[in-house]
Design a protein that fits this description.
The protein is an alpha+beta fold. The protein folds into three domains: 90 residues, no CATH class; 80 residues, Immunoglobulin-like; 109 residues, Immunoglobulin-like. It is 19% helix and 36% strand. The strands form six sheets. Strands 6, 9, 12, 13, 16, 19 and 20 form a seven-stranded mixed beta sheet that branches. The longest helix is centred in the N-terminal third of the chain and has 20 residues. The termini are far apart.
């Protein structure tokens, strides 16, 4: 055993002379954690194969069993550049392996693009009708549908008016009178219940398109209602020219007030009735129309002025209407303004109820 030791030492010295940089532990780690290299020593460390001294070849094996430490002798790598080149070339296929999967990645991306086409947030495809509407073009005739018709429903046949009935509360009128005629149609659910109203003599009676008749002259007139189906019905009216309906209005103007009063009360009468209750009157030629007015000062000792007048309706008054005016004077009867006066003018207007 003692003789063997000198021999080993001698071999080590010879190796150190031949390979001054070949002994020592490397510090470079393999990327996959393979074990330490032993440099030029004839036996490879676990994880390496066949460490031939000076051969410049260093081949990687399976990386399933890493060696503790994971360091490689940098000096040994530097001593043989070819060995490093071989190592790099050996590792290149594994390094480039992820790039080989690029086609698979591209395929996945393509599938993702196709899946993105079903994105619920994407704009929905337009139908032919919608495209036509956006472009301002009419819908194809075979696809067009009336607004009142729902999809899948057959067009509804028009229901014509078959019978008409006209009615009113009377059939006689006076001048400037109005009368509402009511129409009943059969069947009640007719498609077009509208009517056309006419008068055969508009110098006697006029009618609007709601069936309201106005008497404008004496005589007889026939009011006709015509349906779109052609069905029509008449309503006869007799208008008396001896009477006329007139409206009544009253106004008051204070012409003078010489310190008589500030607050006043007004009362008006037409034919014995309060004027605010007489909006209209019926007159004939020769009728007497009587009006009365009372104006009262509102204080502790009221002063009162009153007037009354009568008008006999003549031809002009009957044809054109008439006006009645009254002048009323109110005198102060207590000092210090006793004898002072307030003057009022009251006007009654009687005009045709229909102008």
């Amino acid at each position: 055993m003692i003789a063997v030791v000198p021999v080993i030492m001698l071999l080590i010295l010879i190796l150190m002379v031949l390979f001054p940089e070949g002994i020592g532990q490397g510090s470079e780690s393999f990327p996959d954690g393979t074990g330490q290299g032993a440099g030029v020593v004839g036996q490879a460390a676990p994880g390496l194969q066949g460490g031939t001294v000076g051969s410049g070849q260093l081949t990687r094996t399976s990386v399933s069993t890493p060696v503790a430490g994971g360091a490689f002798n940098a000096q040994a790598e530097a001593a043989d550049p070819n060995a490093a080149a071989v190592l790099q070339q050996t590792e290149a296929p594994e390094t480039a392996a992820p790039e080989a999967a690029a086609p698979e990645t591209a395929a996945l991306q393509g599938a993702g693009d196709q899946a993105g086409a079903a994105d619920p947030n994407a704009e929905p495809a337009l139908s032919q009708n919608q495209i036509a509407e956006e472009e301002g073009q009419p819908m194809p005739a075979e696809q067009a549908m009336p607004e009142h018709q729902t999809a899948g429903a057959a067009p509804q046949a028009a229901i014509p008016i078959q019978k008409l009935r006209l009615s009113a509360d009377r059939d006689d009128m006076i001048l400037c009178d109005t009368l509402q005629i009511t129409a009943e149609v059969y069947p009640p659910d007719a498609s077009d219940p509208g009517l056309l109203w006419t008068s055969d003599d508009e110098t006697v009676a006029r009618v609007d398109q709601n069936g309201l008749v106005t008497a404008v002259g004496g005589g007889h007139a026939v009011i006709t209602a015509i349906a779109s189906s052609g069905v029509h019905t008449d309503f006869g009216i007799d208008v008396s020219s001896r009477k006329k309906r007139m409206t009544v209005s009253v106004s008051t103007e204070m012409v003078e007030n010489n310190s008589v009063g500030r607050k006043w009360q007004y009362e008006y009468y037409v034919n014995g009735r309060p004027a605010d209750q007489v909006r209209e009157i019926i007159v004939s030629r020769g009728d007497r129309v009587t009006v009365g007015s009372t104006i009262t000062e509102n204080d502790r000792s009221p002063d009162i002025g009153a007037a009354e007048g009568t008008y006999t309706v003549d031809d002009d008054g009957f044809e054109q209407g008439f006006v009645m005016r009254q002048e009323i004077t109110v005198l102060e009867d207590t000092p210090p303004n006793k004898g002072n006066a307030a003057l009022f003018v009251v006007t009654y207007n009687f005009l045709d109820a229909v102008q």
